[in-house]
Amino acid sequence: MEKQTPHSEQWDSFYHSEQRHRTTFNPMIDEFRNVASQYGMMIFRQLALLNGGALVAIAPIANMLENPEIAVFGRAAGWFVAGLVAVMIASYAAHLNFTLLSDSLEDTRNKRISRSFRIFVEGDEPDANEIEESKHKRSIWISFWASHLFGWLSVLVFCLGAYTLIGATQ
Question: Which of the two ends of the chain, N or C, has the fewest CB atoms closer than 10 A to its terminal CB?
Fold first, then answer.
Protein backbone atom coordinates (compact mmCIF):
# COMPACT_ATOMS: atom_id res chain seq x y z
CA MET A 1 0.00 0.00 0.00
CA GLU A 2 1.33 3.40 -1.00
CA LYS A 3 1.66 6.14 1.58
CA GLN A 4 -0.57 9.13 1.07
CA THR A 5 -0.05 12.63 2.26
CA PRO A 6 -2.60 13.86 4.82
CA HIS A 7 -5.75 15.64 3.72
CA SER A 8 -5.69 19.39 3.70
CA GLU A 9 -7.58 19.63 7.04
CA GLN A 10 -4.98 17.35 8.65
CA TRP A 11 -2.16 19.42 7.18
CA ASP A 12 -3.68 22.60 8.50
CA SER A 13 -4.40 21.12 11.93
CA PHE A 14 -0.93 19.64 12.30
CA TYR A 15 0.80 22.73 10.99
CA HIS A 16 -0.92 24.96 13.54
CA SER A 17 -0.36 22.44 16.33
CA GLU A 18 3.35 22.23 15.54
CA GLN A 19 3.64 26.02 15.31
CA ARG A 20 2.04 26.34 18.76
CA HIS A 21 4.47 23.84 20.22
CA ARG A 22 7.48 25.48 18.58
CA THR A 23 6.53 28.88 19.93
CA THR A 24 5.94 27.30 23.35
CA PHE A 25 8.88 24.91 23.72
CA ASN A 26 11.70 26.97 22.20
CA PRO A 27 11.29 29.92 24.59
CA MET A 28 10.74 27.54 27.52
CA ILE A 29 13.95 25.64 26.78
CA ASP A 30 15.92 28.87 26.56
CA GLU A 31 14.28 30.22 29.72
CA PHE A 32 15.03 27.09 31.74
CA ARG A 33 18.65 27.22 30.65
CA ASN A 34 18.94 30.87 31.65
CA VAL A 35 17.09 30.50 34.95
CA ALA A 36 18.79 27.25 36.02
CA SER A 37 21.80 28.82 37.69
CA GLN A 38 20.11 32.05 38.80
CA TYR A 39 17.24 30.35 40.60
CA GLY A 40 19.38 27.97 42.60
CA MET A 41 22.01 30.55 43.37
CA MET A 42 19.54 33.15 44.60
CA ILE A 43 17.85 31.00 47.24
CA PHE A 44 20.77 28.80 48.17
CA ARG A 45 23.22 31.68 48.39
CA GLN A 46 21.02 33.17 51.09
CA LEU A 47 20.93 29.87 52.98
CA ALA A 48 24.70 29.52 52.67
CA LEU A 49 25.17 33.05 53.98
CA LEU A 50 22.82 32.34 56.85
CA ASN A 51 24.63 29.16 57.96
CA GLY A 52 28.11 30.46 57.11
CA GLY A 53 27.50 33.76 58.88
CA ALA A 54 26.29 31.96 61.97
CA LEU A 55 29.38 29.74 61.88
CA VAL A 56 31.65 32.78 61.69
CA ALA A 57 29.75 34.48 64.53
CA ILE A 58 30.46 31.64 66.99
CA ALA A 59 33.99 32.82 67.89
CA PRO A 60 33.03 36.44 68.69
CA ILE A 61 30.05 35.25 70.75
CA ALA A 62 32.27 32.84 72.68
CA ASN A 63 34.80 35.65 73.33
CA MET A 64 32.07 37.84 74.83
CA LEU A 65 31.24 35.27 77.52
CA GLU A 66 33.25 34.87 80.72
CA ASN A 67 33.15 31.05 80.95
CA PRO A 68 32.04 29.67 77.59
CA GLU A 69 31.32 25.96 77.26
CA ILE A 70 33.42 25.04 74.26
CA ALA A 71 31.53 21.76 73.67
CA VAL A 72 28.24 23.63 73.21
CA PHE A 73 29.83 26.00 70.71
CA GLY A 74 31.28 22.97 68.92
CA ARG A 75 27.80 21.42 68.64
CA ALA A 76 26.41 24.69 67.27
CA ALA A 77 29.26 24.83 64.76
CA GLY A 78 28.46 21.25 63.74
CA TRP A 79 24.85 22.22 63.06
CA PHE A 80 25.91 25.19 60.93
CA VAL A 81 28.40 23.09 58.94
CA ALA A 82 25.65 20.51 58.37
CA GLY A 83 23.47 23.38 57.12
CA LEU A 84 26.18 24.40 54.66
CA VAL A 85 26.46 20.82 53.39
CA ALA A 86 22.67 20.63 52.99
CA VAL A 87 22.74 23.89 50.99
CA MET A 88 25.41 22.50 48.67
CA ILE A 89 23.38 19.33 48.06
CA ALA A 90 20.21 21.38 47.51
CA SER A 91 22.01 23.68 45.06
CA TYR A 92 23.31 20.76 43.04
CA ALA A 93 19.87 19.09 43.02
CA ALA A 94 18.26 22.32 41.78
CA HIS A 95 20.87 22.66 39.04
CA LEU A 96 20.34 19.02 38.06
CA ASN A 97 16.58 19.52 38.04
CA PHE A 98 16.73 22.45 35.63
CA THR A 99 19.25 20.70 33.42
CA LEU A 100 17.10 17.56 33.17
CA LEU A 101 13.97 19.61 32.60
CA SER A 102 15.67 21.55 29.82
CA ASP A 103 16.87 18.30 28.21
CA SER A 104 13.39 16.86 28.49
CA LEU A 105 11.84 19.86 26.73
CA GLU A 106 14.49 19.71 24.05
CA ASP A 107 13.83 15.99 23.50
CA THR A 108 10.10 16.71 23.15
CA ARG A 109 10.85 19.47 20.66
CA ASN A 110 13.08 17.18 18.60
CA LYS A 111 10.47 14.40 18.62
CA ARG A 112 7.87 16.86 17.37
CA ILE A 113 10.14 18.06 14.57
CA SER A 114 10.81 14.46 13.54
CA ARG A 115 7.11 13.67 13.70
CA SER A 116 6.24 16.69 11.56
CA PHE A 117 8.80 15.64 8.97
CA ARG A 118 7.39 12.12 8.79
CA ILE A 119 3.83 13.41 8.48
CA PHE A 120 4.35 16.28 6.06
CA VAL A 121 7.22 14.99 3.96
CA GLU A 122 6.97 11.21 4.09
CA GLY A 123 3.17 11.09 4.34
CA ASP A 124 2.89 8.97 7.53
CA GLU A 125 -0.39 8.91 9.37
CA PRO A 126 -0.52 11.19 12.42
CA ASP A 127 -0.39 9.44 15.79
CA ALA A 128 -1.36 11.56 18.79
CA ASN A 129 0.28 9.12 21.25
CA GLU A 130 3.62 9.12 19.48
CA ILE A 131 5.31 11.66 21.74
CA GLU A 132 6.13 9.73 24.90
CA GLU A 133 6.82 10.92 28.38
CA SER A 134 10.30 12.17 29.09
CA LYS A 135 13.01 9.63 29.83
CA HIS A 136 14.07 12.00 32.63
CA LYS A 137 10.66 12.08 34.33
CA ARG A 138 11.76 10.17 37.46
CA SER A 139 15.08 12.02 37.74
CA ILE A 140 13.31 15.36 37.39
CA TRP A 141 10.91 14.40 40.18
CA ILE A 142 13.73 13.18 42.47
CA SER A 143 15.95 16.21 41.88
CA PHE A 144 13.01 18.59 42.38
CA TRP A 145 12.13 17.12 45.76
CA ALA A 146 15.78 16.67 46.78
CA SER A 147 16.47 20.36 46.25
CA HIS A 148 13.45 21.30 48.36
CA LEU A 149 14.13 18.72 51.04
CA PHE A 150 17.77 19.72 51.50
CA GLY A 151 16.90 23.42 51.33
CA TRP A 152 14.40 23.03 54.16
CA LEU A 153 16.84 20.76 56.00
CA SER A 154 19.35 23.60 55.86
CA VAL A 155 16.80 25.95 57.45
CA LEU A 156 15.98 23.37 60.14
CA VAL A 157 19.65 22.73 60.89
CA PHE A 158 20.26 26.48 61.13
CA CYS A 159 17.44 26.74 63.69
CA LEU A 160 18.94 23.86 65.69
CA GLY A 161 22.35 25.54 65.62
CA ALA A 162 20.86 28.87 66.68
CA TYR A 163 18.93 27.17 69.51
CA THR A 164 22.13 25.45 70.67
CA LEU A 165 24.01 28.75 70.50
CA ILE A 166 21.30 30.59 72.45
CA GLY A 167 21.49 27.90 75.14
CA ALA A 168 25.25 28.44 75.41
CA THR A 169 24.87 32.17 76.02
CA GLN A 170 22.40 31.89 78.88
Answer: N
Per run of 10 residues, the mean pLDDT along the chain (length 170 residues) is 58 72 75 73 85 91 84 91 94 88 79 72 64 76 93 95 85
In this structure, is residue 2 part of a structural domain? Answer: no
Q: How many CA atoms lie within 13 A of 73 on its CB side?
A: 17
Measured from the Cβ of residue 36, the count of other Cβ atoms closer than 10 Å reads: 18
Long-range contacts of 49-53 (CB under 8 A, 24+ apart): 50/83, 50/158, 51/80, 51/81, 51/83, 51/84, 51/87, 51/154, 51/157, 51/158, 51/161, 52/80, 52/84
Burial of 11 per CB tally in 10 Å (0-12, 13-18, 19+): middle
Comparing CA positions, the residue from 83, 170, 103, 110 lying closest to residue 143 is 103
Tally of domains in the chain? 1
162 inside domain: yes
Domain carrying residue 117: 8-169
